[in-house]
Design brief:
The chain has 110 residues and is mainly alpha-helical. It has two domains: 39 residues, no CATH class; 70 residues, no CATH class. It has three helices and no strands.
């Protein structure tokens, strides 16, 4: 009953987003800077993503194999431990980068 309006509104928003924002910006970037500009941030993204995925799946596999069974609750526990490892890793990266910025700021006296 009320869900048809919600779906229509969501569809209109997605249509606007893709048509008026995403596609226009992609065309503008390729026109102004060339197709290679669309991939400028890819190496940095991969450098951050690949180690995070290794940590996640390593923690998942380690937790799962330590229980030695293939039951549902073991998979859930393994996924939870992998998620916690991701959160800890992200916090470490965040605080590590803030610490470096703080040291740079202090070093240059800004």
């Amino acid at each position: 009953m009320g869900n048809e309006g919600d779906f229509s509104l969501t569809f209109k928003f997605l249509s606007f987003f893709f048509r008026d924002f995403l596609i226009k910006n992609i065309l503008k970037i390729t026109k102004d800077e060339g197709v290679k500009a669309l991939y400028k941030g890819l190496p940095v993204t991969l450098i951050g993503t690949i180690p995070a995925r290794f940590i996640y799946f390593g923690a998942y596999n380690t937790t799962k194999s330590s229980f030695g069974t293939n039951e549902t609750h073991v998979h859930i526990l393994a996924a939870m431990s992998a998620s916690v490892s991701q959160i800890i890793g992200k916090k470490r990266d965040l605080f590590g980068s803030l610490s470096l910025k703080s040291q740079e700021h202090h070093h240059f006296g800004w």
